[in-house]
Design brief:
Layout (H helix, E strand, L loop, with lengths): L10 H16 L3 H7 L4 E10 L5 E12 L5 E8 L4 H17 L6 E7 L7 H15 L8 E5 L5 H15 L23 H17 L7 E5 L3 H12 L3 E7 L2 E4 L6 H11 L9 E3 L1 H5 L5 E4 L18 E3 L8 H9 L3 E3 L1 H4 L2 H15 L5 H26 L3 H20 L4
Parallel strand pairs: 3-4, 3-5, 6-7, 6-10, 10-11, 11-12
Antiparallel strand pairs: 1-2, 2-4, 7-8, 8-9
Helix pairs in contact: 1-3, 1-14, 2-14, 3-14, 4-5, 6-7, 6-12, 6-13, 12-13, 13-14
The protein binds glutamic acid (GLU).
Length: 420
């Protein structure tokens, strides 16, 4: 993270600033802005949890429903020490525009608990999850608000939420969450959907810029679900993934890292650090590496005014939500770097969440290849729609994506009218 970040804006400030840029380009009236810009509902909960040492620890949690204009609120749940209400509000806002960009019938929401799951046992995590699920229970439901995994949550966490919700209602309700284990009504292809979607949009961007993926050099910052799958797909399409990082450090090999081996290494040791045939480098050096594709796949504000000047990639694919600040956006744009914005680039996750929800509602499950084909179609069509606005209106890809998403939410809101 650049040095200037702390003194500048929060993630929600960035979300609001980017909203206004797109709303101006759309000539949106103040009335409509007032109806769609702000979160509809915010719930803050305090979660007492009995820890393994017998003591009770209290955690803060949130669920924000930013919009239900186009359908039930939809968005993940984040467990991270840095979770704040401001961050959850920003993430919920981005979910609204994201679902609209890929034109799935959902609004936007997000949840989070301020905690460090890396320091908690499985039992503690289960107790925390069940207490959180019961605290947000009045808001969630397959027709109301559907959580999913996000940073440091996974299919097991979704299984506990599904169970807590179902036990309270008295019958199984798999459609209350997505990203579940397959055995509980999860969808084939959901686990790798975000990374796969990132890859499809990278293919589109590379085609547009006439940069062959075959032989391209890529850097992946963050090696969780999204980053590792995107790296794997790039690698299997003969790109060189020359550097990768996670919360513990960065590894580099100018000739390309062995990605399948790196995934094994991370599974065995919990980190990419110490990988064979790689050298450690500093995170600032990694962001400044000479490469074709840079994928920030970790947290917000990773590229800011302090380090944006150093970026040498031709394409930046935002696998993370909000990794580039508005100031850094302007710097990257001036340098002619092509940014695939988060609400387009990482929308594959929520797209397959939608497929999962549809399968749950219908009790009819699809083959993996059906999921991949539909995902590819959604991602590539959405990319074309955003690219067209970018070219026709001469706005950045981010503003173009926001314009597409915001205009769909504005249209739905206007058609519904103002209640009461
Ligand atoms: N957490 C993911 C995101 O930020 C997925 C959300 C979902 O599937 O609902 O897009």
């Amino acid at each position: 993270m650049g040095v200037l970040t702390q003194t500048i804006k929060t993630a929600y400030d960035s979300a609001m600033e980017n909203f206004e840029l797109a709303a101006d380009a759309l000539n949106l009236s103040l009335d409509v802005r007032n109806m769609i810009k702000y979160p509809e509902r915010i719930l803050q909960v305090t979660l007492p949890v009995r820890m393994d040492n017998g003591h009770i620890q209290k955690f803060e949690g949130y669920r924000v429903q930013h919009s239900t204009a186009r359908g039930p609120a939809k968005g993940g749940i984040r467990y991270h020490p840095g979770v704040t209400l401001d961050e959850v509000k920003a993430l919920a806002t981005w979910m609204t525009w994201k679902c609209a960009v890929v034109n799935i019938p959902f609004g936007g929401g997000k949840g989070g608990v301020t905690c460090n799951p890396k320091e908690m046992s499985l039992t503690e995590l289960e107790h925390l999850t069940r207490r959180y699920a019961s605290a947000i229970l009045p808001l969630i439901g397959p027709e109301q608000d559907i959580p999913a995994p996000d940073v440091y949550t996974n299919s097991q966490v979704m299984a506990w939420i599904m169970d807590t919700y179902s036990m309270t209602k008295g019958y199984p309700i798999p459609g209350v969450v997505t990203g579940k284990p397959i055995a509980l009504g999860g969808s084939l292809g959901r686990n790798e959907a975000t990374g796969r979607g990132v890859f499809y949009t990278l293919q589109c961007a590379a085609d547009h810029l006439r940069i062959p993926i075959n032989g391209a050099k890529a850097v992946v910052q963050g090696f969780g679900n999204a980053g590792s799958i995107a790296a794997q797909l790039l690698d299997s399409h003969h790109a060189y993934v020359i550097a990768v990082s996670d919360s513990r450090g960065c590894v580099y090999n100018a000739n390309g890292l062995d990605i399948p081996a790196l995934i094994n290494h991370k599974e065995m040791t919990g980190s990419v650090v110490g990988m064979a045939n790689s050298e450690p480098i500093k995170s600032q050096e990694m962001m400044a590496l000479d490469c074709d594709i840079l994928i920030p796949a970790a947290l917000e504000n990773m590229i800011d005014a302090a380090n944006a000047h150093d970026v040498k990639a031709e394409i930046v694919g935002e696998a993370a939500n909000g990794p580039i600040t508005p100031e850094a956006d302007a710097i990257l744009e001036a340098k002619g770097i092509f940014v695939i914005p988060d609400i387009l680039c990482n929308a594959g996750g929520v797209t397959v969440s939608y497929f999962e929800w549809v399968q749950d509602e219908q009790h009819l499950f699809w083959e993996a290849q059906d999921v991949y084909n539909r995902l590819e179609r959604v991602m590539k069509n959405s990319f074309s729609e955003v690219l067209k606005i970018h070219l026709d209106r001469k706005v950045s890809m981010r503003t173009a994506a926001n314009m597409l998403g915001i205009s769909r939410v504005a249209e739905a809101t206007t058609l519904r009218g103002l209640y009461p």
